[in-house]
Amino acid sequence: MTLSALRIGKILENYFKEHYNSEDKFVVKDIQSLAKGWQTELFAFKLYRKSNNEESIEQLILRMYPGKKMASRTKHEFEVLQNLFESGYPVPKTHILELNKEVLGHPFIIMERILGKDMGGIFARALEEKDHKTISEKILPPFASLFIQLHELNWKILANKTKYTEEENQYFFIDKSLNKLEKQILDHEVIELLPLLKWLKENRNKASLEKVAIIHSDFHPHNIILDVSGKGFVIDWPGAYIGDYREDLGWTLMLMEAYTSREVKEAFLKFYEQLSGKIPAEINYFVILSICYRLLEVILTIKFGPEEMGFREEAKEQIKKTAFHIKNLLLSLNEKIGLSIPEIEKMLDELKH
């Protein structure tokens, strides 16, 4: 059951009083639903706290996690955000982690709200208007800079999130990814992806470790909020982990090629290379790896339902609305390694009808 914004506000007022064990008066105002992703629901609100003759006001975000078995992912994101904030990386400050589903029906996090603009909205308008100057001067450079800043952080601030040690072999991360892919593909009998998995395993030698980094796993402009001064803050961290930075870069390049164009993708990669001072080796392999992950994600969501995947119910509808991006990926796969997957094209056509 979906709670109304008004009902959520009333529940939160009582929750804050109990959480802080305070005699202060808490009032929640101006609660509004924000854009929803595949995995979470977001609400913005103002929290008024009154004590004697003093009153404070905070701009906050409620981030709820629908889907099955989301408590561990909620806790994971909360801890990642705390560690990144303490390290000085630009993320919202987190205040509350609540894993008890009895409060709002789902586990949730409450964090500060960054007042500003969604970089993704600016990016989308510039793409629509073919405003290449805005894309090349105001979007891609700061976007690449934030990405590089993340990959240059000391990954050991999240050392408890990985079993990796510096004594591991150079294929530790790619083997972990391929084993995970293979298990999901075989467990769910997604036989249409076996040829792609076979190619990835046969070309594993292209993915020896280059640099260990903190991986966001879904780094794109819609996950960056620009405050009033223009400073970027990165949001949406439930999938963060430790890995080879090219896994992160490959995923972002894959999304750019799928949703925008090859030219924009190449322009972004050039900025990343120029600003970081390095050319990522064999990056094409990691783009193909990301395509495999994306196709698997889409297939499982359609076959087994969004909730089983830890996604919101609307995720399947979003796939239907953006089926073009899957077709772009299939075309890219065919051009890159000569592989066609007609079963997925048929599935998309059936979904549309």
- Find the structural class using helix and strand composition: alpha+beta
Strand segment tally: 10
In the CATH hierarchy, the third-tier topology of the largest domain is known as: Aminoglycoside 3'-phosphotransferase, Chain: A, domain 2
Helix percentage: 40-55%
Number of helices: 12
Poorly predicted parts = none
Topology as a string of helices (H) and strands (E): HEEEHEEEHHHHEEEEHHHHHH
Largest sheet: 5 strands, antiparallel
Commentary on this structure:
By secondary structure, the chain is of the alpha+beta class. It folds into 2 domains: 19-113, Phosphorylase Kinase, domain 1 (2-Layer Sandwich); 117-352, Aminoglycoside phosphotransferase (APH), C-terminal lobe (Aminoglycoside 3'-phosphotransferase, Chain: A, domain 2). The chain is built from 12 helices and 10 strands. The chain has helices at residues 5-19, 71-87, 119-128, 132-151, 172-187, 194-202, 245-259, 262-276, 283-304, 315-321, 323-337, 342-352, and strands at residues 25-33, 41-51, 54-64, 94-98, 108-112, 116-118, 212-215, 224-227, 232-234, 241-244. The protein has a 5-stranded antiparallel sheet with strand order 1-2-3-5-4, with helices on both faces. A 3-stranded antiparallel sheet has the order 6-8-9. A two-stranded antiparallel sheet has the order 7-10. Helix 3 packs antiparallel against helix 4, helix 4 (132-151) crosses helix 8 and helix 7 (245-259) runs antiparallel to helix 8 (262-276). The protein is globular. The relative contact order is 0.11.
